[in-house]
Design goal:
The protein is an alpha+beta fold and 372 residues long. The chain has helices at residues 20-26, 33-40, 48-65, 116-136, 185-200, 207-229, 287-290, 296-309, 316-326, 336-351, 356-367; strands spanning 27-29, 89-93, 103-107, 148-152, 161-164, 168-170, 239-240, 255-256, 265-266, 270-271. Residues 2-25 and 66-73 have low confidence and may be disordered. It is 40% helix and 9% strand. It has one domain (77-367): Neutral Protease Domain 2 (Neutral Protease, domain 2), CATH 1.10.390.
Length: 372
């Protein structure tokens, strides 16, 4: 697979699984529909299996996309004072079916199963829990000690991973374009953060609000990976989904927070369409108004704050973004400008007006052309 033109135009346990509107509203997928659409259209003999897998994954996304725009329930402010406990993880094997959760294969404290996706999922849930507990004092995803469940081996060659409102679900990938989805810790942290947002801010999943929702997941997904590896801002890759692509793909990850629009450039998947500022904001009705595309703008803003401050991004920058998320000031239809002002206010509250942190936040949003 080699480079070609950009896809979008820039313009200025059954029984365990929640059902109905709650399930649809909470389900968030890591692979953007525009990537799946490109792959589904392929008819080359060597890509037939991957195209079929993409079509099935895309139909799965479409089945819940419209209902997913509903805001999520908001956790009460008292959760700030909850003392985090230990994780409670359960890993299930769906066995190639689409019935959740599947067969229990590992619970909290059990030894490794020997099945790599099961053990990667177990570790990834634990790493994400540890970031939120140790750094932000949060007791699991909902702030109340929610048990962390995940199902692996979902579907046949399933090209996605998602948070369904209560648990994580991982496909094995098609083997031609995508590898198993438990490979990437940033993906696990990203999807679990959709749960944190679900229980904290009730941000809608459309247009700029949806892009902020996606960006928050990218931010904390990256922070989970950096926290585990003890990486400084300069050492981190700032890539989301690094390692998901097979060697056949001309690309390094799904997204780059440091340089949006550069993660891949491939003749089958197209070119990474993410803008890095409002100058190239993408106006589209697809992907719920471009939620996976325009998230590049707030992603880069966070990276710029971290770059300016140095050290570990989960410290001052992460604290500012986390306090903004749980602070109760974000409307369901929050815009980039409203979110930017909220991060600036959090920086002032935490570090003071005129502090290096406040100045870094202000300058970052100015650089990506978002008005505060």
């Amino acid at each position: 697979m080699r480079a070609s033109d950009q896809h979008l135009t820039a313009q200025g346990p059954a029984g365990h699984r929640p059902s109905g509107r709650h399930l649809a509203a909470g389900r968030c997928f890591i692979i953007p529909p525009y990537i799946l659409r490109r792959l589904a259209r392929q008819d080359a003999p060597e890509l037939i299996a991957a195209a079929r897998a993409a079509k099935e994954a895309l139909s799965h996304v479409r089945s819940v996309q419209s209902a997913r725009t509903a805001p999520q329930p908001v956790a009460p402010p008292s959760l700030r004072d909850v003392r985090p406990g230990l994780p409670s993880r359960s890993i299930y094997d769906a066995g190639g079916s689409e019935t959740l959760p599947g067969k229990l294969v590992r619970k909290e404290g059990d030894p490794e199963t020997g099945d790599l996706p099961s053990d990667e999922a177990y570790d990834g849930l634990g790493h994400t829990h540890r970031l939120y507990a140790d750094v932000f004092g949060r007791d699991s995803i909902d702030g109340r000690g929610l048990p962390l469940d995940a199902s692996v081996h979902f579907g046949k060659l399933y090209d996605n991973a998602f948070w369904d409102g209560r648990q994580m679900v991982f496909g094995d990938g098609d083997g031609q374009v995508f590898q198993r989805f438990t490979r990437s810790l940033s993906v696990i942290g990203h999807e679990l953060t959709h749960g944190v947002t679900q229980f904290s801010a009730g941000i809608a999943y459309r247009n700029q609000a949806g892009a902020i929702n996606e960006s928050l997941s990218d931010v904390f997904g990256a922070l989970v990976e950096q926290f585990v590896k003890k990486q400084s801002v300069g050492q981190a890759s700032w890539l989301i989904g690094e390692g998901l692509f097979t060697a056949q793909v001309q690309g390094v990850a799904l997204r780059s927070m440091k340089a949006p629009g550069t993660a891949y450039d491939d003749d089958v998947l197209g070119k990474d369409p993410q803008p890095d500022s409002m100058d190239s904001y993408v106006r589209t009705s697809a992907d719920n108004g471009g939620v996976h595309i325009n998230s590049g703008i707030p992603n880069r803003a966070f990276y710029l704050v971290a770059e300016a401050l140095g050290g570990h991004a989960w410290e001052a920058p992460g604290r500012i973004w986390y306090d903004t998320l749980i602070g109760g000031s974000l409307p369901a239809t929050v815009t980039f400008s409203v979110f930017a002002r909220a991060t600036a206010a959090s920086a002032v509250e935490l570090f003071g007006s005129g502090s290096a942190e406040h100045d870094a936040v202000r300058k970052a949003w100015e650089t990506v052309k978002v008005k505060i």
